Amino acid sequence: MNDAARHTVKTEYWHLLQDGRVQCDLCPRYCKLHEGQRGLCFIRACEQAQIVLTSYGRSSGFCIDPIEKKPLNHFLPGTPVLSFGTAGCNLACKFCQNWDMSKSREMDTLADEAAPETIASAAAELGCRSVAFTYNDPVIFHEYAIDVSRACRAKGIKTIAVTAGYVCAEPREAFYQHMDAVNVDLKAFSEHFYRTQCGAQLAPVLETLRYIKHHTDVWLEITTLLIPGENDSDEALNEMTRWVVEELGSDVPLHFTAFHPDWKMLDTPPTDAASLTRARNIALANGVRYAYTGNVHDDAGGSTYCHQCGKKLIGRDWYTLGEWNLDPHGNCTYCGASCTGVFDEFPGDWGSRRQPVQLKDYGK
Fold this sequence. Notes:
Blueprint: H1 3-6, E1 9-10, E2 14-16, E3 22-24, E4 32-33, E5 44-46, E6 51-53, E7 58-59, E8 62-66, E9 80-84, H2 99-102, E10 112-113, H3 116-125, E11 130-133, H4 142-154, E12 158-163, H5 169-176, E13 181-185, H6 191-198, H7 203-215, E14 219-226, H8 234-247, E15 254-258, H9 273-285, E16 291-294, H10 299-302, E17 304-305, E18 312-317, E19 320-324, E20 355-357
Parallel strand pairs: 9-11, 11-12, 12-13, 13-14, 14-15, 15-16
Antiparallel strand pairs: 1-6, 2-3, 3-4, 5-6, 7-10, 8-9, 8-20, 17-18, 18-19
Helix pairs in contact: 3-4, 8-9
């Protein structure tokens, strides 16, 4: 068996069209492919009149990150997470901050390979509490991500999806049966922005957010990359944060992170810290209990505060934890109010380290 065949698996979400093309039904892009063509995501293709995943078991590399880097601030704080991605993406964001992987059209990007059981065993050996599908969107490697999640659960390892949430209803339900936490990248609160800057639609992302919050037990946090002049107006931030509180509840953490010029938006200036603080303050004023700033050094914006008494619960210096004022049940030690999240009795101490790993050395 050649390498291409070894990494190609059949998929479930597609149907044959009357004109002989095959439509991929994984995401709302609904790519309609002739024999031999690939979808926009690059790693799903039409072969023998069906949609196949061409990158099963292959990765762009593995790295141990702090969980806060995903970012997740209310899910096992301070613990290490084994992170990996593949090539390609089902969105076309002009501002992509990981374009070298998500926009890759070269299978050489996928230099590492590992079976699901190897990843789970390596995570356990490396002391990682969780495995994250990140760097590019796990929606497009749906089958591989689910198999990795199954293997991880068998060893008591949690799994995390870092995603844009652009997925159809049936595969979405199948996917989130196997996830423990998710950070959804809500690009903006505008159909125009999604259409012109991402080549996508906002409505399916909002449906994903509603589904995760109201129909699963998956821990949910949301990130918005603030791009100057594009999605950072007071009006847009007011509309988005009010929607989050009304539709998802006040306990869903929001992260506002800084854009830096990249990919096809090199002429757009980076986000200043004041804009992130402004967004955080708008969110808090609209009832969001946990709003954060990211990609900047901001003690106040990076720390967690009690929604009832206002005292600092978890202090953060970039990705390193400082103060810890939660009791073993996740309650404020000052006033007893509950802080929603998934917490251990004691925080982890991984800190800000980022450690690349070769899985061939583990999981044997």
